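Continuing the series of single-chain predictions for the mutant panel. This is the parent chain; the variants come on the following pages.
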Amino acid sequence: KQNEDIKDFYLGLTDKGGRKSFRDVKHYKRRKRWLT
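Parent structure:
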């Protein structure tokens, strides 16, 4: 399941691109910390 989550993350990052993707990266890291 974790792999799928990462897959969705990268797909979304490629889909949006630009600044917003960078913001999503920060959000993803924060979320990852929560999950751990």
